[in-house]
Design goal:
Layout lengths: L4 H8 L7 E3 L2 E8 L2 E8 L3 E3 L1 H17 L5 E10 L3 H6 L1 H17 L4 E10 H5 L7 E4 L4 E3 L3 H8 L3 H8 L9 H7 L4 E2 L4 H10 L7 H7 L6 H12 L3
Parallel strand pairs: 3-5, 4-5, 5-6, 6-7, 6-8, 7-9
Antiparallel strand pairs: 1-2, 2-3
Helix pairs in contact: 2-4
Length: about 240
């Protein structure tokens, strides 16, 4: 059973918050371990169109301008980018890239950023939010995938039955929080005291990308870190 955002916010921020929802967009401020944090996110399996992408980017930039180095928490429940002709013609890819750049800017300005998948995270809506954070976490019931096996079969021309079989032993092909934990995309799966785990995640937050190394250590991605290091070694110092 999925967790609704109000219940989640109460668990994450027992000292109080002002998070509100409008048209599936979440925004507000919360008190955590004696400090104020900015909260943004989505709910209702939001399809990320140009409007929500801009609203999230605006909230990030406002925090950078008005509250230097304030921590940012991103609550994630999205079905991915909105698949409409209107959004495509407006250049939804550019809007989502803008959101990703704003999060990257905040990280470079020393804002600690933590993402939490509390319901579902799909496709570009996840790539430009949770996967741009310093660390991304998930609740046990979260659904995470970039592409469903049926769609993957259509794109790769590999029979869906074969992909289903591969998914049993290879997390790259399989959706779910546990598989993304194995691949390093998710840092940890949270249970019990969510507020304390969020505090710990922010304290441990680092701008260094450790996902490839984590994927290798956990057995979910055997080559990503090795290939990355080979490229770095070949390129040499800047």
């Amino acid at each position: 059973m999925s967790t609704d955002w109000k219940t989640l916010a109460a668990s994450l921020f027992p000292d109080g918050h002002t998070v509100v929802e409008q048209d599936d967009f979440l925004t507000g401020t919360a008190q955590l371990d004696g400090d104020a944090v900015t909260v943004i996110g989505t709910t209702g399996h939001a399809a990320i169109g140009v409007e929500i992408a801009l609203l999230q980017a605006q909230a990030i930039l406002a925090t950078v301008r008005q509250h230097p180095q304030r921590s940012i928490v991103i609550l994630i429940d999205t079905q991915g980018q909105r698949l409409r002709h209107r959004d495509e013609m407006l250049g939804i890819n550019s809007y989502m890239a803008h959101l990703a750049k704003c999060i990257d800017l905040a990280r470079r300005r020393q804002h600690k950023i933590v993402g939490l998948v509390y319901d579902q995270a799909l496709s570009g809506g996840f790539i430009t939010s949770g996967l741009m954070a310093d660390g991304c976490y998930a609740l046990p019931e979260a659904t995470i995938r970039v592409m469903g096996l049926a769609a993957m079969a259509r794109i790769t021309k590999v029979p869906e039955a074969r992909l289903t079989e591969l998914a049993k032993s290879n997390p790259v092909f399989a959706p779910g929080a546990v598989n993304y934990l194995q691949m390093g995309g998710v840092e940890a799966i949270w249970q019990a005291d969510l507020a304390q785990q969020l505090v710990q995640a922010l304290h441990q937050s680092s701008p260094q990308d450790r996902r490839s190394a984590a994927g290798l250590q956990r057995g979910g991605r055997s080559l990503a870190w090795t290939v990355t290091q080979a490229v770095i070694d070949h390129a040499g110092p800047p």
